[in-house]
Specification:
The protein is of the alpha+beta class. Helices cover 17% and strands 36% of the residues. A seven-stranded mixed β-sheet has the order 3-4-2-1-7-9-8. The radius of gyration is 31 Å and the shape is elongated. The termini are far apart.
Amino acid sequence: MHDHVRTFGAIALVVAVVASGCLTISTGSTVNNDGTIERYETRMEMPTTLLDQMNQSAQEENMTLEESIKAGYDEEAYGSIEVTVEEEDDQGIITIVLEDFDPDEIDGSDFGGGGDGQDQAGQSSDPQIDVTVEEDRVVYVDDSFDSDEEINDTEGEDEEFSGQFSLEYTLTMPGPVVEEETNADEIDGRTATWERTGSDVFSNTSIRAVSVTNEPPSAAFSVDPEEPSTGQEVEFDASESTDPDGDDVTYEWDFNGDGEVNATGETVTHTFEDADEHNVTLRVTDQYDATDAETRTVSVPSSGFLGMPGFGVGLALLAVLLLVGVAAARRR
């Protein structure tokens, strides 16, 4: 993290104190096995008077508030950036969603003096995240709400502001979170949560979590019989599927290729009513939502006359014999 770059949390706290109002920030971050961030969402709730001031400030720069907020991010570093501004029950709400980005490609020190990647104060708003991927674990640190800057309450009236600022942070790691190396308030599987209130939550909160890496399962299944007849019960067995971490897994079956789940379970049965090539897909998902799928084509041949396999061929042979007999009779 670059110390001279003001973090998003610090900016939020300065604005809130100046406005003498309450501010709640809810942040959710989802981390991939390779250390990239799948989704980073921040929701700010504030008095509408503060939202009006922010709108007015943006208009003075001939920008919408959404445009002004986006200007604080290095847009090229993200797969997508979405900003929404709304009012609800006398509250102003700003939601910022950042998707598909590598924290290593975000460098606030590259910004200086206006242009892309800065807000109107020339400050970067990019989250201050560091993710380290080791051989069998992922280390996540978010210092977006930890600043070296001193931010004072109104003349030191700590109690007046205590509890009016709150931060809720939910982190989803790629594998089980290691409790001994995580400073979260609560841990549940691969999810860690923080809930903080007080006058310094946006300038003195560092998020740290460690998880083991999670390898996805491998889907595989057998079909018995491999070329069933129409109306015949077919058994599908997914016991050949594996998970390298030994995690609990679930099995979902799609028998007609439409993406819908038709059955669940390791071993299931199904009957095909139509003679055709049927694409059957098995999707295996472990307890941490890592998934794998395999698709196989099951051939259901046409049945003969009256549903009797091979009878159609016999009928054709009989017709040929009859024609030969008729021709012979005519020659007599």
